[in-house]
Design goal:
With 124 residues, the chain is of the alpha+beta class. The chain is built from 3 helices and 8 strands.
């Protein structure tokens, strides 16, 4: 796939007030009630920490995922994974987790780019 050119785009108000607002509300709810951090050892021995923040499968428009490629956690018992001071943010309960960001789902973005491409074909 090749991206040619650039365009200005604004998200439809139905997506802003609907699914995007829903993922924002769900994220706030999870943080307020307590983010679940579950360390899981993979077959290769690497430890991955799973959480209950909204994932791609939970919303058609956006999800929450790490902001950085480097994970870092500080648990209630004081144990740490990664460089907490550089790559983590504090949670309300005193634990720390990898900095997170909202991301648009790739299939949502693709549907927008695909629609723009359809409009171009109609102009030629």
């Amino acid at each position: 796939m090749v991206l040619r050119g650039a365009r200005f785009w604004s998200m439809p108000i139905t997506d802003l007030e609907g699914p995007l607002h829903d993922v924002w509300d769900k994220t706030r709810e999870v943080i307020a009630e307590g983010v679940e951090l579950v360390p899981v050892r993979q077959k290769d021995g690497k430890i991955v920490v799973k959480n209950n923040l909204p994932g791609k499968q939970d919303n058609p428009v956006a999800h929450v995922r790490p902001h950085t490629g480097k994970s870092a956690y500080r648990f209630m018992d004081g144990s740490e994974i990664g460089d907490v001071e550089r790559h983590a943010s504090p949670l309300p309960d005193g634990r720390w987790m990898t900095k997170q960001s909202f991301w648009l789902n790739n299939d949502y973005v693709y549907s927008i780019v695909d629609l723009v491409g359809d409009d171009d074909s109609k102009r030629d």
